[in-house]
Amino acid sequence: MSRSTGERSFPLPSQIEPVPGAEGWEEMYPYFSRFQPEDDQRFWFYNSMHFPEVVPAFDGLTSEIPYTAIGANTARLFSFPTTLGIEYRMLNGRVYITANPVTDPAQIERRLADFQERAGHYYGNWDRLYGEWQQRIEKLIAEIEAVEVPALGELDDLAVVTGARGFASNHLLRENFHRCIDLYSKMWHHHTEFLMLGYGAYVVFFGFCKQAFPEIGDQMVARMVAGMDVTMYRPDDELKKLAGLAVRLELADVFVEGSDPEKVLAALGERGDAGAQWLAALEEAKDPWFNVSVGDGFYHHHLSWADDLTVPFAAFPRYVEQIAAGEDLTRPTERLAQERERIAQEYRALLGTDDEKAAFDQMLGLCRLVFPYIESHKFYCEHWFTTRFFQKIRAFGQLLAERGVLVEADDVFHLRHLEVEDALADIQLAWASGGTELGARHWQPIVAERKRIVEALAGWSAPPALGPVPETLNDPAVQMLWGVTDETVQTWLGGDELDEHTVRGYAASPGVVEGTARVLKNVNEIGQIREGEVLVCPVTAPSWGPVFGKIAAAVSDIGGTMSHAAIVAREYGMPAVVGTGQATAKIKTGDRVRVDGDRGIVTLLG
């Protein structure tokens, strides 16, 4: 990001006052994630899209490892010409990031030559390489699923001796824990291998359109590549299939709005063969399609559908009712595909030369080739793999609780991964010596203190940005994914004051609707959404697709035109305004609002 002339500034990191009751929060995170004195000279913004809550100690890995992988792919493998990687810092439990730009024209030119050779190899062999990626990521998921927490009995299994394995089972405690961390790191490298190239292709096309058609809106560019059938929608499709089965088996009356999943399952168990058939279909759909987090895969407590059935069961009453009424629940993919063709042809016709038209065709073709990956990878990486990863870490926590080191399994997430290793070494030694673990008096007070700190930090209002304002925000990926532009910064600084009844953001998906607001600040509250409400939230996750069928529109604090909320809303043909920065602060549940997805404006109607 460009450096500022220093006239206007957000609070500097060093100026942020300590949060009362949260003293010592820094010990939850590694030294390299803390702000340094020289960081006051740089512009940072709060990544509330991926980290909308305080990050517990173990979950600090979910920023450290992704940024390690994103930067390596962008800066070192594919040599993106104008940007290196993203640096992150922790402040009061929140993640702040900055993108490191390349500004020297000679260096940009050198990097461009390397980028064309390296990225060109991927773009030119995309389908084959993507197929190989698919095999790699599925192998990685099988590997994390196969990791076991060793059972430590009175004696090791006889087979360990007769098979001359050569090491006792306590050795596997740290080896298998390490395996989880190493696989998580490898997954993120695989994750960003294609992702940044996908964004890269879109950024180039986006830049071309903005130059060729100065009046074009961000949403119009996005709609030229919309209407893709991607894996991230498959979990929702499975719910619709189950709803259809419920109607055919005459079980529709079991699915009532607001019902607890346990009650629904119990009622189905009493419905003879029909109930048994539906429950069998549910079990079949669960693996792998319920390995989808209610968040975005960055927090251990954002449980998957497999761990907590609230979200999928919140969608069933509506789906069952619609299917019983003969409605078609398929997403309007065909209509979107026709619309994207019409828009593309209209803009293409405005180009003056055959060379410009050929360039437009080539860039748009590449975008449509690479775009499905941008959404599909999420299911395999942030959801399926990460659900399994957190389940495995929780299983190590269970062992630590059973051995008396921790009070409960989830306490493991209040230790940094290096501290978990120490706690596991304690078990290794106690089992080997016949002694007693010493960790209870060491770790339990630390965990209790950190829980208290996380609670204290939860009440802190994180500034949207820190440090001097850049002359210009010129990182297109930051703009499209996070919605952070010069205009956003202006709004954050209060330079673009709107009246108290208006919230402005990005026009992410077209249409105008009025409805009653449902403000959700925590993803685990998603089951509260009722039919026809307007969802207002900090950020949405792709796994919220099932509730998109119930709501009239979506409004989010964070996100650009290529954020997941924007993409999902367009696929569902539903108005959306994203990147408002302040919707959850200005709007309350029960407020009547008008959402204008054409202009990016949300109006409180009183």
Biggest sheet record: 8 strands, mixed
Query: What is the overall number of helices?
Result: 19
Shape: globular
Q: Mean of residue pLDDT?
A: 90
Structural class: alpha+beta
**Any idea what the radius of gyration is?**
25 Å
Number of strands: 12
| Percent helix | 40-55%
**Low-confidence spans:** 2-6
Distance between the termini: 40 Å
Note the beta-strand portion: 5-15%
Strand order of the largest sheet: 5-12-11-7-8-9-10-6
Protein name: PEP-utilizing enzyme
InterPro entries: PEP-util_enz_mobile_dom, PEP_Utilizing_Enz, Phosphohistidine_dom_sf
Pfam families: PEP-utilizers (PF00391)
Domain PEP-utilising enzyme mobile: 530-600
List the topology elements:
Blueprint: E1 44-46, H1 61-77, E2 83-91, E3 94-101, H2 105-124, H3 126-146, H4 158-162, H5 171-212, H6 218-223, H7 234-248, H8 261-269, H9 272-289, H10 310-324, H11 333-348, H12 354-402, H13 417-433, H14 439-458, E4 465-466, H15 476-482, H16 486-492, E5 502-504, E6 506-509, E7 512-519, E8 534-537, H17 545-548, E9 553-556, H18 564-571, E10 576-578, H19 583-586, E11 592-596, E12 601-604
Parallel strand pairs: 7-8, 8-9, 9-10
Antiparallel strand pairs: 1-3, 1-4, 2-3, 5-12, 6-10, 7-11, 11-12
Helix pairs in contact: 1-5, 3-5, 3-12, 5-12, 5-13, 7-9, 7-10, 8-9
What would you note in describing this structure?
This protein has 606 residues and is of the alpha+beta class. Among the domains are: 299 residues, no CATH class; 106 residues, Phosphohistidine domain (Glucose Oxidase, domain 1), CATH 3.50.30. 50% of the residues lie in helices and 9% in strands. It contains 19 helices and 12 strands. The strands form 2 sheets. The protein has an 8-stranded mixed β-sheet with strand order 5-12-11-7-8-9-10-6. Strands 2-3-1-4 form a 4-stranded antiparallel β-sheet. A hairpin with a 2-residue loop joins β2 and β3. InterPro entries: PEP-util_enz_mobile_dom, PEP_Utilizing_Enz, Phosphohistidine_dom_sf. This is PEP-utilizing enzyme.
